């Protein structure tokens, strides 16, 4: 596969009847922060175009980067993200309660990272197996007693799991489905691996939340799909599967947790499924209207933010950013923030001392705010504003100012 290609057809239904919602032109891989030694390494910028399928209603990126480039050397550990450890413990408890799998049965997690969910499932006595293409993470999980294969899940891998370990009572995929270009191969694998009364449970960003809450930082090269229920219903149906339950969860700015069984399986279909489908129709998500509103909103935030930062710079103020992540890269590129930011702050040890993708804005430990004393810190990690502002109350007390960019542009202190 080439480094990059542009899709012309819808990833779920194959239609070519697509309309552009957001065009981000040239954006690098959002998580490709480099060390000082890697500063000379060439990094690509690729067009990022978000399209709406007029036939099935899927919002999606038509720009596809070879997954080997993104994931094989991936370093981001799920457990380092604020609030996610507790999330996975709760998730394991939810699965056990909701699915009631046979004692000790096999549960497979696709995109298992360092095994946060597997650890929870193991604690409930389940046999666990992780599948993750990031070699370093897979090794780390396996060493911690959570067997993980360094691979991309597909039909071939599913067949190998089945012949070595039998069928799976539970297959999970959290924040994975949106990152896969060939979803048919994954669905075929799930159909192959799942036991007849087993379930596939996935969590993925919910398009309605992304659009309604203006989560512009969700638009990255890693996210290929922005799922909603309506396009998924017919997609699963076409692959021998059926959606039997769905609920909205607050993860990552608004997500859905869906439960799927083999078509005609033993579990009843919850009214939650038709409920959410109805809501999407009522909100007009079968057509372009909500996306037009969203695009206008994103444009107005951009204008307001750039005007404010331009004014501050003209007054000689120093400005830093808070957040060195895949999402912050998106915001820096979409808003065009590079000329304004002297540096970025972050709390993730993996990111501290690195430089942002392509633009090489240096990343510092947030503790250094008190040495540098920037006049303003633009919070790019806006969904974590609460904990960040609490942690750095002293910065504000000593005369510093945080600027929020989303959902609205304001100087918060
Ligand atoms: Zn479609």
Automatic annotation (TrEMBL):
Signal peptide: none
InterPro entries: Methyltransf_Zn-bd_dom_put, Methyltransf_Zn-bd_dom_put_sf, MeTrfase_14, SAM-dependent_MTases_sf
Gene Ontology MF, one: methyltransferase activity
One Pfam family this sequence matches: Methyltransf_23
GO BP annotation list: methylation
Coiled coil: none
Domain C-methyltransferase: 250-407
Keyword annotations: Methyltransferase, Transferase
Source species, domain of life: Bacteria
Residue ranges of domain Methyltransferase putative zinc binding in the record: 10-71
The protein, known as: C-methyltransferase
Organism (species): Pseudodesulfovibrio aespoeensis (strain ATCC 700646 / DSM 10631 / Aspo-2)
Species lineage: Bacteria, Pseudomonadati, Thermodesulfobacteriota, Desulfovibrionia, Desulfovibrionales
């Amino acid at each position: 596969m080439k480094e990059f290609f542009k899709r012309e057809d819808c990833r779920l239904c194959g239609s070519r009847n697509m309309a552009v919602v957001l065009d981000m032109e040239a954006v690098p891989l959002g998580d490709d922060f480099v060390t000082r030694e890697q500063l000379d390494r060439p990094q690509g910028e690729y067009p990022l175009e978000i399209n709406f399928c007029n036939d099935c209603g899927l919002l999606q990126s038509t720009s596809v980067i070879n997954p080997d480039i993104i994931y094989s050397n991936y370093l981001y550990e799920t457990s380092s993200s604020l609030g996610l450890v507790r999330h996975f413990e709760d998730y394991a408890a939810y699965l056990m309660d909701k699915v009631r799998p046979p004692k000790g049965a096999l549960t497979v997690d696709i995109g298992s990272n360092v095994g946060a969910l597997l650890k929870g499932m193991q604690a409930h006595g389940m046999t666990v197996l992780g599948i993750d293409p990031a070699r370093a993470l897979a090794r780390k999980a396996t060493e911690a007693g959570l067997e993980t294969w360094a691979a991309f899940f597909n039909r071939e891998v599913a067949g190998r799991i089945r012949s070595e370990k039998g069928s799976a009572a539970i297959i999970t995929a959290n924040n994975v489905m949106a990152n896969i270009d060939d979803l048919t191969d994954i669905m075929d694998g799930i159909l192959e691996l799942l036991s007849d009364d087993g379930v596939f449970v996935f969590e993925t960003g919910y398009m309605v939340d992304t659009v309604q809450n203006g989560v512009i930082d969700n638009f990255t090269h890693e996210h290929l799909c922005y799922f909603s229920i309506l396009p998924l219903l017919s997609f699963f149906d076409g692959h021998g599967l059926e959606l039997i339950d769905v609920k909205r969860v607050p993860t990552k700015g608004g997500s859905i947790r869906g439960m799927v069984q083999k078509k005609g399986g033993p579990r009843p279909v919850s009214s939650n499924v038709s409920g959410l489908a109805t809501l999407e129709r009522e909100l007009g998500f079968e057509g372009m209207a909500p996306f037009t509103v969203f695009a206008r909103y994103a444009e107005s935030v951009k204008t307001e933010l750039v005007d404010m930062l331009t004014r501050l710079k003209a007054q000689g103020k120093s400005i830093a950013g808070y957040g060195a992540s895949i999402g912050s890269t998106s915001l820096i590129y979409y808003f065009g923030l590079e000329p304004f930011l002297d540096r970025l702050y972050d709390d993730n040890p993996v990111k501290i001392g690195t430089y942002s993708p392509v633009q090489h804005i240096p990343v510092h430990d947030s503790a250094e705010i008190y040495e540098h004393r920037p006049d303003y810190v633009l919070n790019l990690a806006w969904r974590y504003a609460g904990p960040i502002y609490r942690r750095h109350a002293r910065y504000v007390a000593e005369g510093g100012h945080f600027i929020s960019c989303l959902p609205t542009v304001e100087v918060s202190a």
